[in-house]
Amino acid sequence: MRNVNLSGLRSHNTARVLGLLRAAGGDGVSRLELAERTGLTPQAVSKIAARLREEGLVAGAGRGPATGGKPRTLLRLVPDAAHAVGLHLDRDRLTAVLVDLAGVTVAVRTGPLDLGAGPAHVVAVAAAEVAALRGAGTLMGVGAAMPGPLDHVAGVPHRVTGFPAWDGFPLRDALRDALRDALRDALPAASRDASEEAVEGVAGGGAGAVAGGGAPPVVVDKDTNAAALALALREPGGSSFAYVHAGTGLGAGLVLGGAVYRGARTGAGEFGHQTVQLDGAPCGCGGRGCLEALCLAAVARGDLDGAARVLGVGVANLAGLLDIDRVLLGGRVVAKAPERFVRGVGAALAERARRTGGPEVPAALTRGTPHLVAEGAAQLVLAPVFGR
After folding, report:
1. Alpha-carbon gap, residue 335 to 321, rounded angstroms
2. Does the predicted model carry a pTM greater than 0.85?
């Protein structure tokens, strides 16, 4: 199978064409329609389409109805031509998903993980999961999401609460190196030499997508940002919301004006460590009275209504600060008692609206997949290819 040149796919015009092909689904779309919708010339669209067909990413979809002339040839995306893997490296669990070009999750693997066992151990486990999951086809890249704070540009986590060994660890580069070895070792011996030539350069320092055992591009981000990206891809452009994640920790992913907001220093969304009680209990981050510490302590003693009220205080602060349209709740803690958390957070938001006289910001559960973070991690690779 041919390699996919990601630097070519991520060009602006190619991404626009791919995005329209993805939206058209199996029905397909003609070159002329692609030209009309993108503003490109028919010649430019034909060149892009020819390259995509050569890569195996696009195929014919029959002919459209005649409109006064020769019926137009339709093109469609080939969803299983390539995949991305998304990894959720949680404090105690690893989830890995294989996602096709249409954004459909086609395989899932889950298992225990100890983030405290150290970066080297976690990277080895993650690389083995990717090798077991990827199957035979082109791997466009691997997205990895874990608790923050984290610099997604450098691919380096900072002081993850309770896990000081991760501070400054070069996760992106270490995972890419481990994947090179794991994917090569998973190949038959006769294919290993050829696979060394399967790596193509990608702008920005990554490696090319691989059909064999080379190192795929790796993207790293916070778990909440990955989840927010997955949710934003379902939304119309321009929406603003907060995804609030309550699991082994507490965090938020922010989508402002339709785009994930990470902040100039990639530190936005460190929601769990806002102080809400000056003389409160110590938190693993070194502070006192942090929202995360108070909320998870209530969960630990079985007071889920109390945990929901505490979470609501933080969410109301966030909504007032950012003037967002709505709040989406997710994570393992919320899944234990979803109605209680929606009710508790909703009550805090309603109380804030009464005090300020402003509109009430609604709170709701995330819908659909239980693997939101891992699927969002895969979209860290795929979304730019389709112009998102």
Report:
1. 26
2. yes
